[in-house]
Amino acid sequence: MISRLLSAALAAGFLAAVVTTGLQLSLTSPLILEAERYETRDAQAAESRSPALPIVHAHLQRVHGGHDHGAAPDAPREWQPGEGLPRMAFTGLATLIGGVGYALLLGAVMLALGREPTPERALGFAIAGFLSVALAPGLGLPPELPGSEAAPLAARQAWWLMTAVATGMGLYLIAIRRAAISIVGGLVLIVAPHVVGAPEVAATKSELPAGLAAQFAARSLAVGFVFWAVIGLAYGWAWQVFGRGRAANGPARA
Amino acid sequence: MTTAIQTLSGTRTNERLSAIVLAAFLGLGLVFCAGFAPAAALHNAAHDFRHTQNFPCH
C-alpha cells in the first residue's frame, strides 16, 4: 500500500509538473520578469536613499540577476539560478517538488478517509485542495508580483497556513460529515480567517501597473487550478494502474 | 479462520496507518521545501513557482 501510494503520487506530481511548468513559463513567468524590471528601478531608488536591510539585500540580488549594485559589503552573496534556462529549470524543479508533495498529501487524506482513489473522486479531493491552499488564502492575500511589498512575511505565512487548514477542515465537515451541526461548523471555519482578516495587503506605492498585477492574479489562480486538477486526475488514474498489477498477488497487498 | 481474518485486517490497518503517516510527513516536507523554506537559496530557486502558486513570498 505504501509503495502504491508513493508511486501514484510520484506519477501524479510528475504529470502535473509537466503541464503546470509549461503554463507557468508561458503565462506567469513573463509577467514576473516584467514586474522585476519595475522592482529593480524602485529598489535602486530606495538603495540610494537608505542602507539595505538584510532582507531587502537578499531581494535585490534576486532582482539584479547576480549583478552587484554596490550593496552592503558584509552581506554574503546568496546563490540564485542564472537567468534564462537555469531559472526555468529550477521553476520546473520546484513545481515537481510541490506537485509530488501535494499529491502525497492528497493520497494521505484519501487513504485516511477510506476513499478509494478513482480519477473522479481524486479530482473532487483535488478541487478541495485548490480551494484550501489557493483560492481561500488568495481572497485575503491575492497572488502578488515581485515588487508589491506587503505585511511581514511571517504574518502572511501564518495567515496563509491558518486559512488553508481551516478551509480544508471546513470542507471536510461540510462535504464528508454532512450533519447539520458539522455543516454549520464547517462554514464557520471557512469564514473565520476572513473575518479575522489577512495581514494588510500592499498599500505601498509602486510603479507596477495595476493591470499587470490583476492579470497575474487571475492567471496564477488559473494555473493553480490546472495544477490541482491534473494532480487529482493523474493520482486517481495512477492509483488504479499501480493497483492492477498487485490484484494478482492477493487483495491483502492492494 | 476468525483469528486469521483479524490478523489480516490488523496488519492492513497498521500498514494503512503507516502509509498515511509516511505520505503526510513526506508531503508536508516537500511542500515546505518548495513553498516556505526560508533559506535564501531555496527561495531563489523556487521564486517563480512560489509567486505563481500564491505562497507568501519575500
Automatic annotation (TrEMBL), chain A:
This is Cobalt transporter subunit CbtA. The chain crosses the membrane at residues 88-113, 122-141, 153-174, 179-196, 216-238. The keyword Membrane applies. It holds the Pfam family CbtA. It comes from Methylobacterium dankookense. It comes from the Bacteria. Keywords: Membrane, Transmembrane, Transmembrane helix.
Automatic annotation (TrEMBL), chain B:
InterPro entries: CbtB_put (IPR012667). It comes from the Bacteria. Keywords: Membrane, Transmembrane, Transmembrane helix. It holds the Pfam family CbtB. The chain crosses the membrane at residues 20-42. This is Cobalt transporter subunit CbtB. The lineage of its organism: Bacteria, Pseudomonadati, Pseudomonadota, Alphaproteobacteria, Hyphomicrobiales.
